[in-house]
Amino acid sequence: MIMLKQIMPIENPSLYKLHVAKYNGETNPLDDFINNFENWVNWNSWRGSKNRFNRQFVISFMDFYPQRGTFLFGGIFEVLNTYSDHYDVQLCELYKEFIGRLEVSNIITQRGSAFYFENHYDKIEVVEILDKSYSSHVFPGYEYIDYAFSSMKNIINREPPGWKSALENVKGVYMLTDLQNGKRYIGSAYGNSGIWSRWSQYCANGHGGNKELVDLVSQNGYEYVERNFKFTLLEIHPMFTTDDFIILRESYWKDVMMTRNEKYGYNAN
Description:
Blueprint: H1 4-7, E1 16-21, H2 29-35, H3 37-45, E2 57-63, E3 70-82, E4 87-91, E5 102-105, E6 114-116, E7 125-129, E8 146-148, H4 149-158, H5 161-168, E9 170-178, E10 184-189, H6 195-205, H7 211-220, H8 222-228, E11 229-238, H9 243-257
Parallel strand pairs: 1-2
Antiparallel strand pairs: 1-6, 2-3, 3-4, 3-5, 5-7, 8-11, 9-10, 9-11
C-alpha cells in the first residue's frame, strides 16, 4: 500500500486544513470540477457560518463518486483573506501536477467538510495516479449535456478524446438558451459535420452564422453570449440519418419551444 505522505511529503501538516468536498444537496463537486475549474475553486472559497478554513493552507479532495470511498485531489490553496461569507484563496504550485489525477482512499471523517490535516495525513492511502486529469477523460453521456457556454468552450478548446469522438460522430438537434432573458435558439447539425463541428463554430464567434444571433453578438459583443448562454443537447441520431429527417426534427423543436416567436426565441424561420 502506498501512502499519501510517500508521494506528497508535507513538512508541517499543522498549517493545513483538510477539505473533503461532498454532494451539498444540489451539486457534486466532481461535476463542478469537470464542468469548469473555477466552479471547483468556489467550493474552496465558500465560508458559511463557521470559519472552517482557519489555517494558512487548505488541501482539498472531492468525493469521487464513480468509485465509492475514493476521493480525487483538487489542489492546495493558500488562504489570503477571510471574510464573513467567503475566503480569498490562491491555488498553490505545490503538487499542482496531481490535480484531477491523484485518487486516494481511507479518508474517514465525521459529518462536516473541514478537518485538521495532521489527524488524517498518515492514514490516507493512494489508489491510483491517472495519466491525465480526470476532467479530460469524462464524457457524461448525451442525455446529460446541459453546459454553460464558457464550460463548453473550454471543452472544445481542450479537445478531450471522449468528448470529441462522442460529439463528432452524431447528427442532432440542440438548444442554446439565453439565461439573461430566457430566449432560446434551436439548431441542428447535419451533413458531414457532427455536433462537435457545429458547436465549435459557436464557441469561435458566438453566433455560428445564425442571423438573429449574429445581430445579438453585433449589438452586445461575444462576451454577452459567453457569459449568458448555455448549450443543451436535445436529441442525437447516427451519421447515416438523412438530413431531411434532422431538419424535420429541428422544426418540431422550434414549434415546441416557440422559438420562431421573437418573444420566446431567436429563430428567424
